[in-house]
């Protein structure tokens, strides 16, 4: 097939990339692809340790889509086998083990979510249990003999745990080798990953050499900060924006990011043409509120379409600009006409416990009708439907109990 000139491909590939190791080898591989018409095999591995993908995962998925659009072969490796080991990257203790059934179940949702970014018809999907699960103990010994403990302990997270006296399981030392074996089996030309995956990707280069293959090029993407603006986007930190979240929720979460991340999100989480990025950087500085609304609309459009993005913007304006409730509000019928606000929040599912409900009320996070309520001992008299608002985006219409008709004497 016909490829774009190498320099044009490099310009697209370099967008948002932290490091290409080594770039000269990527150039050589691209030149060969142009000369022979044979696409590069570009690999991205995802361990399905959790069932949900978010914008942090999308950073590398979008880079894989760029390679795909350039005409190269995109290979998504679902790590149902390596997921049982658990990637030790960035961990200060051993991950809890998962079963193959759990990783496969999570992996099925990955495919559906990744298809929001990748072209499914042009994506090769593989499960690494296909080859790792069939390896014998002798095969594992041969693979382990190709790397030293000293080299493995060079990685920062292992060093820190070793010095702190935290246990390191032997199976964790095998993880980078298992990931490297994926590259050998697939004969990967390029592997994508976040900067935290640098060690694992470099091990892949070494093991490919040992197998007599040309080593892969490592393309490292930055780690996207979550909505708190500090920590890596993570579901466990509750600072994530999920790929399958409703448009209104996604829009609101994007608006909650700190202003200093506006340009970074435009660069890493959207498909805005590269030539527009300098103008967006200036806009983010001069009018961050307007720029953030455009960012939220752009991200929602990517995953839900333009009409949904328009509705999400209108929803936000209705709630926060005009102070109106959303068009559709869930309803809950109270069991009694007189009910404590704490009990209502817990039984209606707006808080997980009485203590959480009290904290929400005391912090001013609960409104009854148009009025904030800060008294956790508040008792409501339900003679008509009442609108409850918790936080910025959760609404509930509380209905009074059904009145039983009186028996005639």
Topology:
Layout: H1 6-14, E1 19-21, H2 23-36, E2 41-46, H3 55-69, E3 73-78, H4 82-85, H5 100-114, E4 123-127, H6 129-132, H7 137-144, H8 149-152, H9 156-163, H10 170-186, E5 190-194, H11 198-210, E6 217-221, H12 247-255, H13 262-269, H14 277-286, H15 288-304, H16 306-321, E7 331-333, E8 338-340, H17 341-347, H18 354-362, E9 366-368, E10 371-372, E11 379-381, E12 386-390, E13 394-399
Parallel strand pairs: 2-3, 2-5, 3-4, 5-6, 7-13
Antiparallel strand pairs: 1-6, 8-11, 9-10, 9-12, 12-13
Helix pairs in contact: 10-11, 12-15, 12-16, 13-14, 13-15, 14-15, 15-16, 17-18
Textual characterization of the structure:
The chain is an alpha/beta fold and 409 residues long. The protein folds into three domains: 6-221, HUPs (Rossmann fold, 3-Layer(aba) Sandwich), CATH 3.40.50.620; 247-321, Tyrosyl-Transfer RNA Synthetase (Orthogonal Bundle); 331-399, RNA-binding S4 domain (Structural Genomics Hypothetical 15.5 Kd Protein In mrcA-pckA Intergenic Region, Chain A), CATH 3.10.290.10. The chain is 46% helix and 13% strand. It has 18 helices and 13 strands. It has helices at 6-14, 23-36, 55-69, 82-85, 100-114, 129-132, 137-144, 149-152, 156-163, 170-186, 198-210, 247-255, 262-269, 277-286, 288-304, 306-321, 341-347, 354-362; strands at 19-21, 41-46, 73-78, 123-127, 190-194, 217-221, 331-333, 338-340, 366-368, 371-372, 379-381, 386-390, 394-399. Strands 1-6-5-2-3-4 form a six-stranded mixed β-sheet, sandwiched between helices. The protein has a five-stranded mixed β-sheet with strand order 7-13-12-9-10, with no helix packed on it. Strands 8-11 form a two-stranded antiparallel ribbon. Helix 11 links the parallel strand 5 and strand 6. Helix 12 (247-255) packs across helix 16, helix 13 packs antiparallel against helix 14 (277-286) and helix 14 crosses helix 15 (288-304). The longest helix has 17 residues, at 170-186. The protein is globular. The termini are far apart. 34% of the residues are buried. The model is unreliable at 404-409 (pLDDT under 50).
């Amino acid at each position: 097939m016909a490829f774009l000139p190498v320099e044009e491909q490099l310009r697209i590939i370099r967008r948002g990339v932290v490091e290409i190791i080594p770039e000269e080898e990527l150039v050589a591989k691209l030149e060969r692809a142009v000369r022979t018409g044979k696409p590069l095999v570009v690999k991205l591995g995802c361990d399905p340790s959790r069932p949900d993908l978010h914008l942090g995962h999308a950073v590398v998925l979008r880079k894989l889509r760029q390679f795909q659009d350039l005409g190269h072969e995109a290979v998504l490796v679902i790590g149902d086998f390596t997921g049982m080991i658990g990637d030790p990257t960035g961990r200060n203790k051993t991950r809890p083990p998962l079963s193959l059934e759990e990783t496969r179940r999570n992996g099925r949702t990955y495919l559906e979510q990744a298809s929001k970014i990748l072209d499914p018809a042009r994506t090769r999907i593989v499960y690494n249990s296909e080859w790792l699960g069939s390896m014998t103990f002798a095969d594992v010994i041969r693979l382990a003999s190709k790397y030293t403990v000293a080299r493995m302990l060079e990685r920062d997270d292992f060093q820190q745990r070793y010095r702190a006296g935290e246990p390191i399981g032997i199976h964790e030392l095998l993880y980078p080798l298992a990931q490297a074996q994926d590259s050998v089996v697939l004969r990967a030309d390029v592997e994508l990953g976040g900067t935290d995956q640098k060690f694992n990707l470099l091990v892949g280069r070494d093991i490919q050499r040992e197998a007599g293959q040309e080593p892969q090029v490592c393309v490292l993407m930055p780690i996207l900060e979550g909505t708190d603006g500090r920590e890596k986007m993570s579901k466990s930190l509750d600072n994530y924006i999920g790929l399958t979240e409703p448009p209104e929720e996604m829009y609101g979460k994007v608006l909650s990011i700190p202003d200093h991340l506006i340009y970074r999100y435009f660069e890493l989480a959207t498909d805005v043409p590269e030539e527009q990025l300098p103008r967006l950087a200036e806009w983010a500085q001069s009018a961050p509120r307007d720029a953030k609304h455009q960012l939220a609309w752009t991200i929602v459009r990517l995953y839900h379409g333009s009409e949904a993005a328009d509705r999400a913007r209108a929803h936000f304006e209705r709630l926060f600009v005009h102070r109106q409730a959303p068009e559709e509000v869930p309803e809950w019928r109270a069991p009694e006409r007189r009910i404590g606000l704490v009990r209502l929040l817990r039984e209606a599912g707006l808080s997980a416990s009485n203590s959480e409900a009290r904290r929400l009320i005391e912090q001013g996070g609960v409104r009854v009708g148009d009025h904030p309520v800060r008294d956790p001992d508040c008792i409501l008299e339900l003679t008509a439907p009442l609108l409850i608002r918790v936080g910025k985006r959760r609404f509930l219409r509380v209905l009074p109990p059904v009145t039983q008709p009186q028996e005639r004497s």
